[in-house]
Amino acid sequence: MIVSDGAHRTRRLGVLIVANVRLYREGLAASLANREHIVVVATTATRADAVAAVRELDPHVVVVDIGTRDSLELIRDLRREGTTTKILAFAVEEVPSDILDCAEAGAAGYVTAEASVDDLVGAIERIAREELVCSPLIAAKLFGRISERVAGAAASASQNRALTSRERQVLDFIRQGHSNKEIAQELNIAEPTVKNHVHHLLEKLEVTTRGQAAARATLPASRHRAFRADRLPSRDTG
């Protein structure tokens, strides 16, 4: 389908192709050149050249061969440029983790390694219209990943609100392996006061030992899990 600009005129889609192998990128360029509504504005082989080409030519779509060196880093670079250019990950293995990696890097769509030229053209047209077509499995995985991130951010914010600034200081010293006496000296407070802070933060973090608190402090929030109350020993505050 040809993209319309809303004034009954057709808009040719400018496409930049990024691939390490010269014959590969030239073959793609030749195949796309046969489509009257697509114009290949350039082909590049390296990350630096691709970023420079996007800045200069402002293509509608960049097709990035995922086998290209530093392909995910290139996608991140292009997203940081803040342009309206869409990024299409090309020749991706149909493995959910690989596709999710491309999406998290900033790709707006993908085409698998088994795709035809027609599939590639269709994907270019869809992401130019800000559409995405993917399998139900990938759609479910994408939504699942978003849900995990939202839940993790909420858990992290909740934990940060629960701990006072002094408790966060004490937790940081615990993570570094300091004893109550050493923490008291560092913070210039009494050792029994430190013990009280440790007791409170263990309760808030729902752990029972200093080691568990240190581990909880270094884990991503999405991996935090409460310890079962019926299996908890007495709290280790000293």
Task: Please give a structural write-up.
With 238 residues, the protein is an alpha/beta fold. It has 2 domains: 3-135, Rossmann fold (3-Layer(aba) Sandwich); 156-231, Arc Repressor Mutant, subunit A (Orthogonal Bundle). The protein is 53% helix and 14% strand. It has helices at 22-33, 47-57, 71-80, 96-105, 117-128, 136-162, 165-175, 180-187, 191-205, 210-218; strands at residues 3-4, 10-11, 13-18, 38-44, 61-65, 86-92, 109-112. The strands form 2 sheets. The chain has a 5-stranded parallel beta sheet, with helices on both faces. The chain has a two-stranded antiparallel sheet with strand order 1-2. Helix 1 (22-33) links the parallel strand 3 (13-18) and strand 4. It is elongated and about 80 Å long. The relative contact order is 0.08. Mean pLDDT is 82; it is low at 1-9 and 220-234.
